[in-house]
Every structure is written in structure tokens, then in C-alpha cells.
Amino acid sequence: MNAPRYLAVALGALAALFVGWSATRAEALPGLLVFALPPALLAITALRGWHRAGFTAALLALLWFSHGVMLAWAEPAQRLFALAEAALALLIVHAACLPGMRARRERRQPPE
Fold first, then answer.
1. Alpha helices in 1-112, H assignment, sequence order
2. pTM score, two decimals?
3. In the chain, which end has fewer C-beta atoms inside a 10 angstrom radius, N or C?
4. Residue 111: what pLDDT?
């Protein structure tokens, strides 16, 4: 699986998590617009080849990770959703960093 597809899958999983999470609340629309829409749009842009999708997703993943950790600590009833959010945010950061890590590794290898 290439890096943009890996990033899109991780972002799509996060968007699906937020959709499921919003379904458990009385006011689902604000949660969908604020939390589920950005990763879904970023997944689409990653698949379409936008060169800043990984950078933007990694920046937002810092917020998603912080939100997940804070919510896991503060709300025991929401702990599973929050820890899943934090784990998916880490996957998004990993997926966003893959192209740079691969380029650096290729640059370090001596020519055969």
C-alpha cells in the first residue's frame, strides 16, 4: 500500500469513528461537521494527489491526538472512542511521515 492510500485509509477510519461517535449523541450534526468532515475531505484530497494533504493531516492529527487523550482522561464513559481517536491520530502522523522517511533512506543508501 502506498503512502497516500495508507493516509486516506487512516483518515477514513477516523472519519468513520467520528460518525459512529456522533451517532451516540443527541446533537449529531455539529459533531459531524466539526470532527468527521475534515478527515473525510483530507482522505479525498490524499487520494487525488494533493501534495499538502499529509502535512495538513499531520497537523490536525496533533489536535485529534490531544483531544483523544484529554477525553480518555476526563470522561471514562467515552474512553474507548477517545483512545481509538488517539491511536488513529498516531497512524495518520505515521502515514504522513512515510514519504519523507523513504526519501531520506533512499538518499543514504550507497549506489550499487
1. 3-23, 28-31, 37-47, 53-74, 79-108
2. 0.88
3. C
4. 67
What's the CA gap between 46 and 49, in Å, rounded? 5
Provide the pLDDT confidence category of residue 112 given band limits of 50, 70 and 90. Answer: low
Q: Which three cell numbers stand for residue 75?
A: 470522561
d(CA 98, CA 55): 11
Alpha carbon distance 40, 83 (integer Å): 19
Distance, CA of 87 to CA of 38 (rounded, Å): 17
What 52-55 contacts at long range (C-beta under 8 Å, 24+ apart), as own/partner pairs, is 53/4, 53/7, 54/3, 54/4, 54/7, 54/95, 54/96, 54/97, 54/99, 55/96
